[in-house]
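Thanks for the sequence, V.! I ran Type I restriction modification DNA specificity domain-containing protein right away. Repeating your input here for the record:
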Amino acid sequence: MNITKSLTIAEENLLLQGISAFIKHFCILEQKYKRGLLSHLFSEKSTQRCTTKRYYFSEIAQRRSEKYDPSSGIEYPCVELENIEQESGKILATVPSIKQGSIKNIARPGDTLFGKLRPYLRKYAFAEQMMVCSSEIWTLIPSDVVLPKFLFYLTQTEQFLQVANISSGTKMPRAEWSNIEKAEFFIPDFSVQHKAVSLLERVDKKITYTDSVLIYLKGLKTGLMQKLFI
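Predicted structure:
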């Protein structure tokens, strides 16, 4: 093995580790910033500055009741709880629906997906297309008082999650719709909703970009380690 080459690769690897550590810290800060932004945008004090109306959650959204039977032979992307990344809102993968052995919930474009099992895991996603999902995932239909994406971000707020975590069961806690439907939220007019959604989407894009840089650096590090032993 060439000692000079090994030292150079080791130095590059050390540099990559330092950059990765910095970006990971930056990712954490971005997530904290987003949480703070959600708390601010959806707080009662913030909404007092604009035209708002108080609604029960049942007036803001309803659960979609449509079901999907795999034996129908119709193929859709299927999302299980493990396919949704915690807190990011990303659907990491889908599985073939016709290969599933149980009845699934149907989600249509514009629906918000929310994992009711272990709600503290913060598993939520936005349906961009027709899909089906686990019965442990609620598919929420936005009413005419909210923009679809506004509902998606509302389910990420501490106020919503606190209610969702008033759950039944100890080992496998589940959010109770009877609690959530009675929760009250202040909803601003559509112009304010548009601004809030636009701002939060920009933050999400930055977080996604930072994550992609981390994945790229991880690939570079793996490549360097392989070169070290050539």
